[in-house]
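subagent[fold] <- orchestrator: predict structure for attached chain, return tokens only, no commentary.
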Amino acid sequence: MADFYRLPLAELEQRYEALVRRALPLWGIDSDSPLRLLKLRENAVYAVTDRAAHEKLVIRVHRAGYHSDAELQSEWQWITDLGEYGILTPEARASGNGRMFEIVESPSVPEARQVDVVDWIEGEQLGSVEEGLQGSPEEIRVRFETLGSVMAKMHNHVSQWQAPEGFTRHAWDVDGLTGEAPFWGRFWELPALNARQRDTMLKVRDRLRAALTQLGTAPDIYGLIHADLVFENVLAGADGIRVIDFDDCGYGWHLFDIATSIIFLHGTEHFAPAKEALIAGYRQNRPLPDEHLAWFPVLLMARATTYLGWMHTRSETETAREMTPYIIELVMNLAEDYLGNL
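subagent[fold] -> orchestrator:
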């Protein structure tokens, strides 16, 4: 399947589009409906205009093998429950079979794929990994404060939530971050690292493993988290901040969520004010004692290493080829601070 992901983006788009057109009738949508690619990275995401119903929807084709059917069903269970709790989340469109997702095959794409559909969301992304933040400094401050507030509400929901029977998701825990088989891959083995960088990552791994073990997983600091609240997964609209793309949600530290939201600002003038606004907003709805916040550098470093792992295990993708030098520089700068402050 690696050869498939090495295809030129234009060809990948055409192949995914063929699969999407096979999937559309399962939701009662004309297979000839207009499509527009929104995102092609982990998943292939398209906007579709249902001409018969005169409405716009979003259809997502999942990366093969990333989640089991039970894990994806659990993802949708949490999204639905968060929506009922008052968090603005994507609104799923059940298929004609009454399912939250369908398994779709196409000769153009290797392996059957999980496919789901959500209502179109009007809103403006906070920014993107590639292009950075959008808006004035005051707009950015307000949005990060609002994001912190929403994040705290999500953590509050989990604190009082009873996961239904059969609920299953991966974990961003000690083993999921620093074990022999981290969830996103053995980051210290990324071929693009030189010998000195690999040695640094091995030291970071050992220090992180000891620190995270000491931190523990008490329910006031650890639980089900979104784990990907980066700029492009947060939409600012007329009805408030809406959280999208729960693909990476799993069990982890609350500070891991906070670190994820601002890690790509590290080394920029936005990092400190965004962190301050995020924490201020978070504390409006959930306690975050200073003694717990002191662990933030540990979770920031842990989050950084996962992106090396992602580049390693998705090395065949254009995203990995383009982003690997930037990610290495980001991680090494953080590692210098992290190891130097111990």
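orchestrator: received. Logging for downstream: The chain has a mean pLDDT of 93. The CA atoms of residues 272 and 325 lie 24 Å apart.
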